[in-house]
Amino acid sequence: MAEEQVIVGLEVHCQLDTKSKLFCGCSTDYRSDGPNTHVCPVCLGLPGAMPVLNKRSIEYAMRVAKALNCTVLHESEFSRKNYFYPDLDKAYQITQYDKPLAEGGYLEIEGDEGGEKRIRITRIHVEEDPGRLVHMGNAERGKYSLVDYNRAGIPLIEIVSEPDMRSPKEARKFLNKLRATLEYLSVFDSEKEGSLRVDANISIKGSERVEVKNISSYKGVEKALLFEITRQKSLLRRGQKVDRETRHYIEARGVTQSSRSKEQEHDYRYFPEPDLRPLHVQSWVEGIVLPELPDARRERFIARYGCSLNHARTLTGELRLANFFERVVAADPKGLATLADTWIADTLIGELNYRDMSIHDLAMDEKNTTGFIQLLGLVKDRKCYDKMGIDILRQMLDTVKQGRPYETPLEIMKRLGLVPLDVASGGTSPGGASLSETNPVTRAIAEVITEQPAAVEDFYKGKKGAFNFLIGQLMKKTRGCADPGELNRLLTEELQTKEV
Amino acid sequence: MTGHEITFEPDDPYHAFLTTCPRAPHGDGKLGGIAVAVKDNISTKGIETTCASKILKGYIPPYDAHVVELLRQSGAAIVGKTNMDEFGMGTTTENSAFGPTLNPYDTGRVPGGSSGGSAAAIAGGMVRMALGTDTGGSIRCPAAFCGIVGLKPTYGRVSRYGLIAYANSLEQIGPMGRTVTDVSALLEVIAGHDRRDSTSYDKPYSPAPRADISGLKIGIPQEYFGAGVDPQVAAVVTRAIGRLEECGATTVPCTIPSMEYALAAYYVTCTCEASSNLARFDGVRYGPAADTKKSWHEAYREVRQASFGTEVRRRIMLGTYALSSGYYGKYYAKAQIARENVKRDFTRIFSEVDVIAGPTMPTIAFKLREKSDPLSMYLSDILTVPANLAGIPALSVPCGKAGGMPVGLQIMGRPWEDERVIDVAYAYEQAVS
Ligand SMILES: [Zn+2]
Fold it and tell me: Which residues pair with B298 in a beta bridge?
């Protein structure tokens, strides 16, 4: 069977990070407040209330349009999308239909086949978010549901791509790049819960297209696509056909589920919103000055800080991460650039992911940034070796995650009893005499040699792995507090001395 | 506000009011102490606002419509909410869920609609002025049938914020009164820009009406005197236009060919918009509570079936159908083209004349229950809907009687020339008084 070509297109809905809602003056900062506290006649859809367009939302959307190389239409307009649902207070959503704000752009991602790949953008339009249902019990069998209209009227931007992605990985890369771009434009905050929702169109070349709705996380996109591709491929392998349908992604179970029912077959009866005038904003485009975007920043990181391409990609792939990196480097531009590059792009990211944390969780509190800079300072000055540094970093992250009071790296070192072992002063005496008995490093070497006679034997037989094993034991014994290079040298010396 | 109030406890033999405020507070100002009635589709904070529909029974708006705020600021006493056809859908006020309003001139006849309560409250001597709304003639028709003055302002002249929408792109709130001077005074208070209504313009109204119309050119469209227009009504109106000529105006015959499609364009547009506007009334937030044991869509259906009147349901269905996938281009889009043609006809005519005059309604007030089939009812809107489609100002001023019932002279003007339309009506009123 020929290679089954996967075809993916995405519709991404992002909340624009404006201060007030799309059609009224209510604050968008609703997440920490009680239900139905950020509402007014307009966003409650009270009879007689009328929408007034928030110009800032349009300006934000135009920034996105420009950054995604789209053409802003000479005239765009808002339409009503009519459907009944309890979270939709007016029973229609004000959105854009046949005259969207912008059309025809592209976003470059790192393609599966290496190099930059262009994903075409079909259109960008602006619309309002509906309210939210809170089910008491589960949705099917719960006793009742409550409606919260705090979210009703939050500005959304919908970005529709062409079906240009060929794998779930490319879809994730597209989404990550898009998120970074929106954040660089200061129009979007990915840290806000529910600020992004994705619908995906997936097909295997030659078969029907399936729309998967309701994906609400970055990780969910890749998972939902993988599930759907497997499902479609196995249908085809069994000689069955894929139905053209809409499916819903069930995040908790990582599966997609057919949502075909009478109620879901909507005819949205679009028509122009008579309470708003058409938009003529094309002339604003020229006035919009874009900030440095991810690609430009990546190139600058390579040129200015000597980052590798991969590290630069990682560091600039998230606005907060890039900012964090530059904050750290700025503390000691000469000393920290190289160190910060690997420590942030590899070590820190790895440790954050392991804890399911984001850079925001760490950098939110200024003290932690300072702490991280101090930690790298210690590593640079060799007052603390890599392994110790990692232990300290882990403690810092756990402290943040568990909400414990802040400790400086030095305090953590002290608490853990991590003291850099001064190998030099306890090492070979100026006269070339044997190692001092009181030095912990010396003691550790002696102990390891005694405790691991088999490995020592192997070493003398010339087995390469034996030395590394002994070093490992030694690191464990010294809890990483000794300079690894020195340990290497001293163990070699000691073993050679013994042999003689 | 200085803490005054007026007592308002009328007998209301014509059922003009749905709600009255027996002790209505008022302040000082241009309308200080004047009793003003407000049509029941305009939101009044703290006063039940039902649109004469069961589905809004018990709804007390938490906010004032922009025009109501302005009324209060002008010192007016808001004395009550007037009856109407449910959500404004009708030409007789018989479509009120709470019973019809009667015509003060003949209680066996309708007052016209949909602002029939406002017109009857004025004609019956209960208030001096009132607010109505006009989507396809809803101010002018009852003004004509009840022998009072009513103006549908230029679209955008008065904020619609707080007006419970029936057909957003057509309707305007407007003044109704016993005299042109009263209508002018009320317009002065309510006109002007409101940032909460994006379709409102910064066009305040202030001049006092002037009776000098010498040199004015009046267009007389042949369609306004053709088939379907009661010859008696046409004769009364023709005489009235003669009085205007005596005042120094000249008349020019003209035609509005696009009128052939005006009624269809009007009914497609208003039903489409209405089907969307009224969808929010689902029994969750307004109206009788739904049976919670049923699924939400079953509950919606049940509440909407039981709580909307026949005409409202008919128009919701028509509009839903016309907007459906595959029909949009056939109906809504075509209606907008027809609408552009109407506008173009008016632009052409107004390049040669200053105002257009003709009858407001093709007949005098109908007998109660006379218009039982919807189509013949719709046809009676033919002379009023063109002004709504074009967004131009149009006024009805009493100009005599036919068969013992009042007849209205309709005067239409260029966009934003509400002043001129009022001047012409004032000139007529002065000439005959
Ligand atoms: Zn609001």
Answer: none
Closest residue in chain B to residue A24, using alpha carbons only: B196
CA of A51 to the centre of ligand 1 (A): 9
Instruction: For residue B138, indicate whether it is catalytic.
Output: yes
- Map tokens 């005299």 to a residue: B179
What's the average pLDDT block by block, 10 residues per block, for chain B (433 residues)?
Answer: 82 97 95 97 98 97 98 98 98 98 98 98 98 98 98 98 98 98 98 97 92 97 95 98 97 97 97 98 83 79 94 97 93 97 98 98 97 89 98 98 98 98 98 93
Question: By CB neighbour count within 10 A (0-12 exposed, 13-18 middle, 19+ buried), where does B373 fall?
Answer: exposed
**If we measure between CA atoms, which residue out of B252, B170, B226 comes closest to residue B382?**
B226
CA-CA distance, A203 to A137, in Å (whole number)? 35
For residues B405 and B124, give the distance between their C-alpha atoms in angstroms, rounded to a whole number: 14
B217-221 vs B250-254, strand pairing mode: parallel
- Walk me through the domains of chain A, giving residue ranges and CATH numbers: 3-286 (no CATH), 294-416 (no CATH), 424-499 (1.10.10.410)
User: CA-to-CA distance for B120 and B137, rounded, in angstroms?
Assistant: 16
CB A226 within 8 A of CB A234: no
Inter-chain touch A49–B168, beta carbons under 8 Å? no
ipTM: 0.96
What is the pTM for the complete model shown? 0.91
- The whole-number average pLDDT for the span A247-262 is 84
Which residues have their alpha-adjacent CB atom under 5 A from ion ligand 1? A 24, 26, 40, 42-43
Q: Where are the alpha helices (DSSP H) in B195-284?
A: 231-246, 259-277
First and final C-alpha spacing in chain B: 36
Instruction: Say if residue A426's pLDDT is above 70.
Output: no
The answer to whether the CB of A282 falls within 8 A of the CB of A144 is: no
- State whether B280 and A89 contact (CB < 8 Å): yes
Closest CB from A52, A82, A89 relative to B196: A52
Res A427: pLDDT: 42
Out of A48, A267, A271, the one facing B272 most closely (by C-beta) is: A271
The domain made up of B1-256+354-433 has a fold known as Amidase signature (AS) enzymes (3.90.1300)
Residue A386 has pLDDT above 90, yes or no: no
pLDDT band of A73, cuts 50, 70, 90: very high
Tokens of B168: 């957003």
**Residue B150 host element (H or E):** strand B149-152
What's the length of chain B?
Answer: 433
Annotation marks residue B39 as catalytic: yes
Q: Calculate the CA B114 to chain-centre distance.
A: 7
Could you tell me if A245 and A211 are in contact, meaning their C-beta atoms sit under 8 angstroms apart? yes
Coil, strand or helix at A24: coil
Give the tokens for residue A130. 């509906």
Alpha-carbon distance of A430 to A302, in angstroms, equals: 45
Work out the average pLDDT over A182-209.
Answer: 94
B13: nearest Cα among B104, B133, B138: B104
Note whether B353 and B220 are within 8 A (CB): no
Ramachandran assignment for B125, one of left (phi > 0), alpha (psi -120 to 50 degrees), beta (any other): left
Q: Using the beta-carbon criterion (under 8 Å), do A47 and B59 form an inter-chain contact? A: yes
Distance B293 CA to ligand 1 centre (A): 31
Report the pLDDT value the prediction gives residue A139, as an integer from 0 to 100. 57
Q: What long-range pairs does A220-226 form, CB within 8 A, spacing at least 24?
A: A220/A249, A220/A251, A221/A10, A221/A168, A221/A171, A221/A172, A221/A175, A222/A168, A222/A169, A222/A171, A222/A172, A223/A254, A224/A200, A224/A249, A224/A254, A224/A256, A225/A8, A225/A168, A225/A171, A225/A200, A226/A168
- Please state the φ and ψ torsions of residue A91, each to the nearest 5 degrees: 65, 15
Q: What are the backbone angles phi and psi of residue A352, rounded to the nearest 5°?
A: -65, -50
The answer to whether residue B184 is catalytic is: no
Instruction: Confirm if B87 and B166 have CB atoms less than 8 A apart.
Output: yes
